[in-house]
Write a structure and sequence with these properties.
By secondary structure, the protein is an alpha+beta fold. It has helices spanning 51-54, 57-67, 83-96, 195-198, and strands at 35-39, 42-46, 70-74, 103-109, 113-116, 150-162, 165-173, 177-186, 208-209, 219-220. It starts with 34 loop residues before the first strand and ends in an 11-residue tail after the last strand.
Length: 231
């Protein structure tokens, strides 16, 4: 489970020992990911900031399993949220600034995962290297692990609707928000679509949009939800 203390483990991102590869994201403050995985229609960036919680295949398996339990709320009016993720989501949206106006949904997990907040260099964490691929680490039955290092992590998510892209920002709630991953999926709406349908709030679309200065009538919203042929 734990490597001998005298062996320097390879970097989780660039696999080098004892230094780092020239382009390793650990030395790059601007890096937005240390690992990229594909998603249907897009990709997921695992962020350097979150490597402590996502830096091994087993940890990513645990985080993905937790992501799958996310409860989503439409960011319309004042969505009702439990107090604890609600305050954190508010703080995150404040950080997003004007981009927060593009929020389509916010999400939070009611479940949590138990993970280890160890004192290793997060890029060379020595824990849990023996956990089989595709399984989550079981810290509680891990011999020799200091149980004081265990933390319970919930996730919150913010889904942003850009003109041609969906982005979901995933954060771990560890007393503050740590960005773990950013999902980007392309989707281009038909021109002239209403804001509601662009965000998939089809039930809120009045069916047409405000006429431009030269139009005489309101323009029908081109979203497929109005024609009865869902795309
Ligand atoms: Zn490295
Ligand atoms: Zn560690
Ligand atoms: Zn629609
Ligand atoms: Zn519409």
């Amino acid at each position: 489970m734990t490597r001998p203390p005298n062996a320097i483990p390879p970097c989780l991102a660039c696999r080098q020992t004892p230094g780092h590869a020239q382009l390793c994201p650990c030395d790059d403050d601007e890096a937005t990911y240390y690992l990229q995985h594909s998603l249907p229609g897009g990709h997921r960036d695992w962020t350097p900031a979150g490597i402590r919680y996502t830096g091994t295949p087993a940890r990513r398996t645990a985080v993905r399993a937790l992501m799958a339990t996310t409860c989503w709320a439409r960011m319309h009016g004042n969505p009702e949220l439990p107090a604890s993720p609600g305050l954190l989501i508010k703080a995150i949206l404040a950080e997003f600034g004007s981009t927060s106006r593009r929020t389509a949904r916010i999400g939070y997990t009611s479940d949590y995962l138990t993970t280890v907040d160890c004192r290793c260099d997060p890029w060379r964490c020595t824990h849990e290297h023996d956990t089989a691929a595709g399984t989550s680490p079981d810290w509680l039955t891990n011999p020799g692990l200091d149980l004081d290092l265990l933390v319970n992590v919930t996730l919150v998510a913010v889904e942003i609707r850009w003109p041609e892209l969906w982005q979901t920002y995933w954060f771990a709630d560890v007393g503050g928000a740590v960005n773990l991953a950013i999902d980007s999926v392309s989707e281009i709406s038909p021109p002239g679509i209403s804001v509601a349908c662009h965000r998939r709030w089809c039930d809120l679309c009045p069916g047409d949009t405000k006429p431009g200065p030269r139009d005489r009538a309101r323009t029908p919203c081109p979203c497929s939800c109005h024609t009865g042929t869902p795309s």
